[in-house]
Amino acid sequence: MYKIPLSVPSIKGKEWEYVKECIDTEWVSSAGKYVDLFEKNIAAYTGSKYAIACVNGTAAIQVSLRLAGVGAGDEVIVSTLTFIASVNAITYNNAKPIFLDADKYYNLDSEKTIEFIKNETVFKNGFTYNKKTNNKITAIIPVHVWGNACWLDKLVNLCEERNIAIVEDACESLGTFYNLGKYKGKHTGTIGKLGCLSFNGNKIITTGGGGMILTDDEALVEKAKYLTTQAKDDPIRYVHDEIGYNFRLTNIQAALGVAQLEQLPEILQRKKEIYHFYQKELKGIDGLTMSKTPDYSDNNHWMNLLQIDTDIYTDDRESLMEKLEENGIQTRPVWAFNHEQNPYIYCQNYKIEKAEELVEQSLCLPSSSNLKESEIQKVIAALHG
C-alpha cells in the first residue's frame, strides 16, 4: 500500500445518498432513474446532444467503432502511445490498427496523420484505401491522452473529404475543452462522429467502472442502446437479428456517476491547483519539469507528467521510480509502444519518432484530486534526493 497513491477516487458528495436510494427502491440493475439522469447530465455538461451509458470505456470505443462502420478486414488509425484498450477495441471489431506517432503533447500527431493519408492512401469509390495493404481505412481514433486535447481542426476536414470516421477516445479528458480554433468552446469527445468517456476508478470522476458514448446523431443513439442490450429485436420472445453485447451500466453505478459529476467543477479546479503547485516546486530542481499542456485547450489535468532531462538530472526514469517507491510514492511510466506489443507486432506503423523520446523522459506523478500540498512536498523532497 502506497502512502501517496497515483490516482484514486474522491468520494465526498451525495454518492451514498443516491446509491442507498437505488438499494431501498430495489432499482439496482441496468434500468432506473439514475441511468437516465446520468446520461442526461453528461450530455448537458459536454454539450453533446446524446449520451449512452455503458459498462466501461473500452466497450464504449468498441461499440462506437462498430457504429462508425468499422468491420472485418478494415483498418483504423491510432497512436502507438496510448493505453492498449483503444487498440484492442479495434481488434474486437475484427479490424486492424495502423500505428502513428505522437506529438509533443503525447497525442496522435495530426500533421503526420494527414501526411500518411495524403501519401500512403488512395480515395476511390467513396472510401479511403491503404496503398500498402489495399484494405479500407474506415476510422481514426484520436486519444486525448492525460487530458490533453488532440488538435483536430485540419484532420477533421481531411477525414470528411476521405469518408473516414473520427471516433474520439476522451476517456481521460472529461472536462477538457478547446479555447482556440475551429472548435473553440467544444468539449473533447464532441468533435467526431462519436466520442467515448471512461469512469474507471482512476479517472477524474468514477462509477467504479463505467463508460459513455457521445454523439449528435439520433439514429446512432438507438443503435447504440440496441447493441449494448444484447440486440433485442423482440425482447419478449427473445428474437435477435444481430450480435449484441451485455454492455449497459447499472443504476447503482449511474447513481455514483450523478453524484461525482456534481463535484466535477471543484475537482477540475483542484486538479489545476495541483498541477501549478508541482510546477512551482519543481523550479528548484535542474533537469525536471512538468509536461506542458496545449495552449489551444483548457486542460482537465487528469494526470501530471514529469519530464526528465537525463543530461542534467542525475537519475534516469527507472532509478527515479525506484527512489520514489522507496518513499511510499506511487508513480508509473508511460505505456509501452502498442506497435511493439506481441498481438500487434505485424501491424503497420508509420514514422514513430517523437513517441520514443517521450517514453524515455516521462513519469506519471501522483495526481489524485484529494492530494494535499504536504504530500506534493514529500514527492518534491524525494525528487531532490
Describe it for me?
This protein is an alpha/beta fold and 385 residues long. The protein folds into two domains: 248 residues, Type I PLP-dependent aspartate aminotransferase-like (Major domain) (Aspartate Aminotransferase, domain 2, 3-Layer(aba) Sandwich); 121 residues, Aspartate Aminotransferase, domain 1. The protein has twelve helices and 16 strands. The protein has an eight-stranded mixed β-sheet with strand order 1-10-9-7-6-2-3-15, with helices on both faces. The chain has a four-stranded antiparallel β-sheet with strand order 11-13-16-14. The protein is globular, with a radius of gyration of 21 Å. The two termini are 22 Å apart. The relative contact order is 0.18.
The CATH architecture of the largest domain can be given as 3-Layer(aba) Sandwich
| CATH fold-level label of the largest domain | Aspartate Aminotransferase, domain 2
**Helix proportion:** 25-40%
Task: Describe the largest sheet.
Answer: 8 strands, mixed
Low-pLDDT segments, ≥5 res = none
Mean pLDDT: 96
Radius of gyration: 21 Å
Query: Could you give the distance between the termini?
Result: 22 Å
| Spatial strand order of the main sheet | 1-10-9-7-6-2-3-15
Question: CATH H-level name of the largest domain... which superfamily?
Answer: Type I PLP-dependent aspartate aminotransferase-like (Major domain)
**SSE ordering:** HHEHEHEHEEEHEEEEHHHEEEHEEHEH
Proportion of residues in β-strands: 15-25%
> Would you state the CATH class of the largest domain?
Alpha Beta
Q: How many structural domains in the coordinates?
A: 2
